[in-house]
# Entry
Amino acid sequence: MSVEIRDICFSYGKIKALDGIDLSLPKGAVGLLGPNGAGKSTLLRILLGFLTPDRGEGQVLGYDIKTQQAMIRKFVGYMPEDDCLIPSMDAVSFTSYLGELSGMPRQEAMKRAHEVLFYVGLEESRYRNLETYSGGMKQRLKFAQAIVHDPKLIFLDEPTSGLDPQGRKEILELIMDVSSKKDIQVFVSSHILSDIESVCSYVVILNKGKLASQGKISDLKQINYSLYEIKTKGDSEDFVKRLRDLQCKVEETQDGIMKVYLPPDKGPQEIFKLAAEGKNQIRHFVKSQTSLEDVFASLVGVD
Amino acid sequence: MPIREKGYTHWDGEFQPKKFFWWPITRYGIKLTFKKKFFKFVFFMTLVPAVVYLAGIYVSERLDDFSFMIRESAPLLQVNPVFFKSYFTSEFLLFMIVIIMLFCGAGLISDDLKYNSLQLYFSRPITKKDYFIGKSAVIVFFLSILTLIPGLIFIVMKLIFSGSFKFLASYPWLPFSVIGYSAFLTCFFAFYTLFLSSVNKNRRYVSILIFGLYVFSDILFGIFFGIFGKQYFALLSIKVNLQQVGACLFGQKTPYHVPWFYSVLIITGICVLAVSVLKKKIKGVEIIK
# Structure
């Protein structure tokens, strides 16, 4: 296991950001999901050693997260969420500079900087000043600096934020390429569920600082619930209330369709029973294909 | 833009053992300073007094040859601790050091705060100490060229021009004074500049602070001294405090009747304040508790 943590807790003053997180991440690309404030960035920062947990212990690549942060950072690449650059530099100097700070010899860092800039598709603009780069180019550059020292594990914090569809596709291709063909483990934190679904096979879901779920996406989709799309006529508010009393999670879409997440111990006939009791007419009833979005919604709530 | 035209290859080199992780930070800081507009000219101007003093050392050994030029000013050309003190504590040199700090020091940390680059540094295996050493070494580099190196060159040239070790035998402690005062000045300006550079994200504000605080402290002293006539108000001035310590280290009378160690205490206090602020400001992530 490349990342293994037990009972990690961290608070910002009185606010608990992480509360008893246990994780064991397998090889390959792993997605980290959660709504705003779930503790995703805090978890990444703890794994990198920026923050020291209040409680708990863990290891990244076999190095202790509390005492061996320097070793972790030597073998881990990090692509931060925020825009960050070093002014008055071009991409080659920037990437090789950060390679040197990782401990690479100067000449090799320079050679490697050219290689990774070619790899991420910035070869033509590698001598341009960074301040003139577009958002998409900055994202690629951040990816390049994360892989310049050939890390064994990369933490990517919102790698596709602020990108147009083409830029997103290209960054996702890069992530897939390094994780599947280059034997580099990737830990991606993102709000965009479809991105995670397209790149990762394993996902960790955080909610309010707690571990909501973790596992293979394919497993999570199957075992947790059944999803039905329903359209009714009648008092829908009362019907929704009854469904919720039945431990179902209900999401109402704009076109009047309800997505009902039925717990594993309940069958679809229960929905019909409730509808009959409340004199609701069911006009549309389809068992839906579950996506990661549905898994996420069922675990962290649909609000 | 095509991706992976050349594909990703693993790096098969080896990481360097951790010794001078701060060196790339220093090298980049120095390189960036030399790229700045007008810096080379200002730096050259700052070195002019050193060249003049060096010429003075040469002339002092050739008084007969230059008698037509020197006339009444021969006493000024005596190379002794006063000569060194006058170079190191001259208002021009101290003022120009502050100007050099604006070029090389103002943006050292403020730019990193502005562009969020601290997290890039600290996602690498460098520590706060490496970062601080790397940044302060930029200041040390420029101040050494203005203080330590000229001071030592003066001594060496005096020995060469005079052709004997008599000068060194008369003032054996002088090299230590040069090293000590250079280290004192460098240390103070490194802390002073990095401290102010860490308090704001805008390099221009930081420049105003570095320059303003130095000048304002002197003006404040002038006002209070003018009103109350007490020499102790000299402690308000950064410049005077530096001159007081300089005079003491070169074995001369202090310019004001205030014990020199008061000035040392004040300068040390500024440095301690700087360290505590830098400790809080320099971190990989901003934690709001």
Summary: Chain B has a mean pLDDT of 89.
